[in-house]
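Figure 2 data, in text form.
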Amino acid sequence: MNSFIVILMAAAFLVAVALLWKNREDFSDDISDKPEPEDNRVTPLLRGINYLLSDRPDQALQEMVHVAKIRSESAEVYMALGEMFRAQGEYGRAVRIHQNLLARPDSSLDFNFQAYVSLGRDFQAGGLLDRALRHYGKALAIQPDHLESLNACLRIREQSQEWEEAEWLVSRLEQIEGTSYHEHRAYLKSEMAKATLDANDLDVAQSLIGQSLTLSPACTHAHLLNIELFIKEKKYSEAVEQAKLFFAQVKVEHHALLPRVLLAQTEFYQQYAESLLMDMWKQHQDAELAVTWVENLSKIHSLEDGNNLKTKLKPKNLSLRHELRLLALDETNDNLVQQAKHWRLVMKLYGCHHCGVQVRDVRWQCPKCNKWGSMEPLKTSQSFGEENA
């Protein structure tokens, strides 16, 4: 049973409880022998629940609409109906229902809070992030410590690359939950540093990178940015030392990310980085490092340089993924080579060790579970999970 069915069943159950509670008998009085007339809301409600159990959500939704028409004064019914519409992807109808609930003159502050949160969910699911933020903000004005609204705002700020606002929200979550978000904040500082480095504001970038590494000494992104910064300033000796520190402090799974940075500047690569990478290769014999090095050299310099490097390294125990990635660099018109090239364009190179999602390009935040620093290169033909992005 998918999540949509579960949501519908939960909403229908809440409506049923609300209706039964409103129509409960007062057992303190004498029980009358006269039969009570059947509530005309019960039949469509029971039919709706039966449709849910039969995995027929469309028919269930129609019955709930019927219940809402009969019980037009019940705000709880409409709230549940709005949740159902959003779960089915009908965001516009969900928004209209929740907005109408806010327009009721008799709505309590608690009910307005629920409606604001629901509207935030509606707009967020529909991709209208500014409106979602506005309604989550109204909910937080009523309940400043509401974790769902705070986390939703954080996701939106990160999605919009509003890093300073995101960091404020992380600090707020730390205060409420009493837990440390140091690694999360370290990656946010790194994103700020990346933006300032791209804008050539090197002093600010250096400060932000330092703050990131103070928060999390193993922050992969901050280490790579520090190397990039030193190369940009032509401080090659410092860049080499930072690269060695990278290998010492960052987990092994991320070592293969280094060639992409070290090969970006030809002078630095030829004078320092080539011998540095060779030393690291001899120490670790990491197949992913070798393949990534060959790929980047072929792309940034020349295919001939890449082939010469492959011959020099002679990597062993390569997985099928590694073999196909190297085969895709070939310039022949062999059918297998062409298939490998096509596969190389669409293959997933990184996976999240937390939720299993796979992506094509390196990302510092997982696009599914939103964990920072959880994406790692896929080294074998096996994947972390079944879902792709």
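Caption note: The chain has 19 helices and three strands.
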